[in-house]
Amino acid sequence: MIELFEHAVPVLIEGFWITLRIGLFSILFASLLGLGAALMRTTRHPLVSGTAFAYSTVFRGTPLLIQLFLLYYGIGTLESVRDQPALWWLFSDGARCAILAIALNSGAYMSEAIRGGLQSVPAGQLDAAASCGMSRLQIFRRIRFPLAIRQAFPAYSNELVLAIKGTSLASTIAVMELTGFARRLMSQSYLIVETFIIAGILYLAINVTLLGCAWLVERGLGIRSGE
């Protein structure tokens, strides 16, 4: 057992940093996508809101694993993609495809959380701000968005954890992240339980840290559970 730890921990730590990098980039892009899609959903333009609705429906209604396969083994093998340097740079690398797939998937869920927060702002407060002479941008920046974030943040923070756990599927498209290294170690040592316990602890460390940061943000926003 001691030999396993001496051999496995350094290898899994390497995968840990790859997982962390994929997860954080995915969360960053998912947050931007989620906010953009939520704003599109709240517009009165049917084409804009319909596009955001279609994006949310497709990516929430299909498994992340299938999305990964379609991006890497599907779009990534098209000749038209290979002929475009920028597209080939994106789809030729498993890690970049994993970031894109997780961002698109998580962004769809985040968009619904943010949209719900935006729609939960009482119309009376918006009308009162408008009567005070505030512009639409000022109303959004000072009133609607801060109130919406308070409502949406608990669901948003849950999605952060799901995005990190989603990185474990990156090993299915030949990305050697934490789960990929764990599977390799398992095949070499045949110590399945011990290897994946260590990997699970490392995943837990990431998510506990994220949840701790989310808790601090919730305190700063004045959010209290059960209220």
Automatic annotation (TrEMBL):
Domain ABC transmembrane type-1: 16-210
TM region(s), chain numbering: 20-40, 52-75, 87-105, 191-217
Subcellular compartments: Cell inner membrane; Cell membrane
Residue stretches in coiled coil: none
PROSITE patterns assigned: ABC_TM1
Membrane disposition: Multi-pass membrane protein
Main location per the UniProt record: membrane
UniProt KW Transport keyword: yes
UniProt-listed Pfam families: BPD_transp_1 (PF00528)
Keywords: Cell inner membrane, Cell membrane, Membrane, Transmembrane, Transmembrane helix, Transport
PANTHER family: ARGININE ABC TRANSPORTER PERMEASE PROTEIN ARTM (PTHR30614:SF10), MEMBRANE COMPONENT OF AMINO ACID ABC TRANSPORTER (PTHR30614)
UniProt family annotation: Belongs to the binding-protein-dependent transport system permease family. HisMQ subfamily.
Protein name: ABC transporter permease
Species: Castellaniella daejeonensis
